[in-house]
Amino acid sequence: MVQTSEDIRLLNEKISHASGFVTRINDELSKVIVGQQAMIERLLIGLLSNGHVLLEGVPGLAKTLAIKSLSQSVNAGFNRIQFTPDLLPADVIGTMIYNQSKNEFYVRKGPIFSNFVLADEINRAPAKVQSALLEAMQERQVTIGDTTYKLSEPFLVLATQNPIEQEGTYPLPEAQVDRFMLKVVVDYPAKAEEQLIIRQNTLGLSAPPINPVASTSEILTAKELVRQVYLDEKVENYILDIVFATRYPEKYNLQKLKPLIGFGGSPRASINLALAAKAYAFLNNRAYVIPEDVRGVCKDVLRHRIGLTYEAEAENVSVEQVINEILREVNVP
């Protein structure tokens, strides 16, 4: 659909009016979380673009706290699933229970039936449990017995994984990691931020409560507006060039990357890059996507969708370096 400048102006006004809850959420989360603004922004992008988020970082970086606080700031349901090696699919999605007194089966729904689901240390559970969760993420429905149940809206799975411990873990296969819209690598806080964290946690004061400052109806309205954000054909082609450069680097003057990339991003990468860029524009009160929006979310969308070869590992080349090289070489519209 062709959008005129007047359409974009009107949409801009709607977005300015509808995005007020973003500031309220940020203000509320800043009461308990110091720094980590990029992580919170990525969680909001996932929420607004109907995607799920995988957070990777060492323990103690406020991953769980951020997710829990976000769910409290939105007046919505929250469930946490602590993934362990002995977890069963029924522990996630629910199961049929036999009632002996009534001589009948009834459904006991699992913790997946909520608006926000925290899958803590997802790489600690075996493949069949991961598959049960990922199917619910993709289909947004769960089948228990003969009945299919729709999941609540909004529905957001936020999974965490610890990159340093390998013993007793089950790494997510590439095809399953691809179900996550964003993979966010959470880094250590800056020195001044960590000093503030020390002060907050050693004074013996209880953390201030997180109040609900946004409703699910506001989130659903915002999700509709994110879909309407204008994506120009030139920016569309820029997204395609970035993704195609991960598959055919030699066509983009990146011959040196060819032996380093085992496989590139799938069409899901292109779709999610476009949706994430739209959500990024929305968070910046804009009704149109600019190339900087695409570049801003590019690493989070692509880092888990590019497979490196053994040669790349031998040369200590990271996925981030490959993406940086692609962004340097692909022409910006």
Write structural notes for this entry.
Helices cover 46% and strands 15% of the residues. The chain has two domains: 131 residues, Magnesium chelatase subunit I, C-Terminal domain (Helicase, Ruva Protein, domain 3); 172 residues, P-loop containing nucleotide triphosphate hydrolases (Rossmann fold, 3-Layer(aba) Sandwich). It is of the alpha/beta class and 333 residues long. The strands form four sheets. It has a five-stranded parallel beta sheet with strand order 2-5-8-1-9. Strands 3-4 form a two-stranded antiparallel sheet. α3 crosses α11 and α10 packs across α11. The relative contact order is 0.15. β6 and β7 form a beta hairpin. It is built from 14 helices and eleven strands.
Assigned CATH architecture of the largest domain: 3-Layer(aba) Sandwich
Name the structural class. alpha/beta
Mean pLDDT: 85
Can you tell me the CATH topology of the largest domain? Answer: Rossmann fold
Task: Sketch the major β-sheet.
Answer: 5 strands, parallel
Outline the low-pLDDT stretches.
Answer: none
Total number of helical segments? 14
